[in-house]
Design brief:
Blueprint: E1 26-28, E2 33-35
Antiparallel strand pairs: 1-2
Length: 58
Amino acid sequence: MSCKGICIHHEAVKGVRGYRYLNGEKRCRVCCIFLVWDNDFCPGLGHAVQEVRLCGKK
């Protein structure tokens, strides 16, 4: 399945501090971009988006 390019219109701009998940941004694992999106699925692919960081900081 290929990306339809819709998710690029919802791409999030990185803030000063970089706390993407705390700012409500979600990451599409397939497209590898952060989205400002209220739904649980990527608008371009329909895959589930990641809402929290899976690994801890080192």
